[in-house]
Amino acid sequence: MSDTRLIGVDWGTSNLRVMRIAEGGAVLDSRSDPRGAGGLAPDHFHSVLQEVAGDWLTQGLPVLVSGMAGARGRWREMAYLPCPAGVADLASAVASPDDAPHVSIVPGVAVFEDGFLQDVVRGEETQVFGLDVQDDAVVVGPGTHSKWIRTAGGRITGFRTFMTGELFAAIRKGTILGADMGDPGVDDEAFAAGVQRALRDPPVTAALFSVRVEGLAGRLSPASSADYLSGLLIGAEVAAQVDANHRPVILIGAEALCRRYAAALALGGFHDVRIADGAAATAKGLWRIHEAVSR
Amino acid sequence: MSDTRLIGVDWGTSNLRVMRIAEGGAVLDSRSDPRGAGGLAPDHFHSVLQEVAGDWLTQGLPVLVSGMAGARGRWREMAYLPCPAGVADLASAVASPDDAPHVSIVPGVAVFEDGFLQDVVRGEETQVFGLDVQDDAVVVGPGTHSKWIRTAGGRITGFRTFMTGELFAAIRKGTILGADMGDPGVDDEAFAAGVQRALRDPPVTAALFSVRVEGLAGRLSPASSADYLSGLLIGAEVAAQVDANHRPVILIGAEALCRRYAAALALGGFHDVRIADGAAATAKGLWRIHEAVSR
After folding, report:
1. Is residue A81 part of a domain?
2. Pairing of strands A249-252, A138-141
3. Domain that holds residue A34
4. Which candidate from B117, B202, B240 shows the least CB-CB separation from A217?
5. From the list B72, B166, B202, which residue is nearest A202 (CB)?
6. What is the Cα–Cα distance from B95 to B76, expressed in whole angstroms?
7. Tens digits of pLDDT across chain A (295 residues)
8. Which end of chain B is more exposed for a tag (fewer CB within 10 A), N or C?
9. Predicted ipTM of the assembly
10. Do the domain assignments include residue A189?
């Protein structure tokens, strides 16, 4: 424990991760727990954290939390910082919950247009600052709600959320397209065909019907239809962001999913794409925010 | 019964309607049954029709069927006719199931691009020909799978299917957006806001996240969110077809839904929109196809 300088907490909607973080941001040890912020009342956070990592919290170490612990109705509501937002902006806005003065929570970041809230992020902002992001890059965090985050001059300048993962699950479960549909990840060609369809043929609510038509035409088997559908939805993201395809892209998230996004990005003309480790990025981002707080 | 010239059958996926049709296409009487084509094996169609309207079928009257009875695996699979397709094309392609030589089934219509099947319709083609459609019009059949059908010179020249109704249900049931969501039809302003958002801010998989952001920002109440979501999805249809907003539009379907589409179309700059009776259009379409067959 003697090398530990910071206890980092990534409190997502459906999962909790606590990390012992060394000088510079390296992860020395970590623990996970299924008690995500989505299911916790404000007065439960402290005791859950004690249960999961109480033995790490006894030494007066600073604790820095990113993610949904700062959402409305959770540990302590943290207002969203407006874009553009950098490490120093996040650091200057951290705050502690009433029941845990040794804990600091990182605020989320928001896009405002003409003063109106347009989009929000909680957690991915910390990951972005843990990456070594080139200027004018795009950081893509695929998943339930995919985030496409643009950066410039070391700050987040804007972002867009796509409900891709959640839509995929809802379409598979709740529509005629899901009948006989398997899991994605078995047919790269069907995935690419879906991406290309979405790129050339918006909008996606019409392109979705092509899952059925391709099946009727004998060009798509039930076993491959999940890949095609996944390609359509991810392709719709790429199509919407294709104006940025000269920028470098960093993907953070589950590796299999990141590989699918990398394939879709290549079809959309993005040529500089790399995959980063999400957990390492979170730890390093927390470390950098902590350093800026301490300054 | 003496005025009856044709027994018309509209066999949808989830509903059956049998009509006694007079010279010219007027409906003299009709009966409905929940045994839609979606749940029937090929050898059940004849007996269901006998049960529902056997007393109407005893007099050697011709029987003409539109809709899903002609789909693969149903009464008799009828190939799709390619666009452009008119009444004479449909009439020349009707055919009888093996077990009912007195019955004729109307084929569906398909869009092909470079020889590849792109979109399909079964049932709405018959409705289109029952309308008195101006040239260069758009016939819109909202619903589970919304159809936007373009016409010219008395023929169907092309169409596009949007999975709007099915997506609305799947999103409400299967995503975070559906939590606390009520039914649509209570807040016209929220509906209009959704349409306008979709018109100015594609793609819809990103615009969908605005249901959540508008709620977070206090601009959308749970009670109004179903209308906003409905507006987003219908607005995505209008946005995709806005290049046709100089054309006259005829809406056919449930009246409350058609009114919502009419409001969305107005926001998209469509200025010549009327709502037609779907059942009457089907009967008249069947009559016109029957007349062309008899010629």
Report:
1. yes
2. parallel
3. 4-131
4. B117
5. B202
6. 9
7. 679 999 999 999 999 999 999 999 999 999 999 999 999 999 999 999 999 999 999 878 999 999 999 999 999 999 999 999 999 999 999 999 999 999 999 999 999 998 899 999 999 999 999 998 888 999 999 999 999 999 999 999 999 999 999 999 999 999 999 988 999 999 999 999 999 999 998 899 999 999 999 999 999 999 999 999 999 999 999 999 999 999 999 999 999 999 999 999 999 999 999 999 999 999 999 999 999 998 7
8. C
9. 0.91
10. no
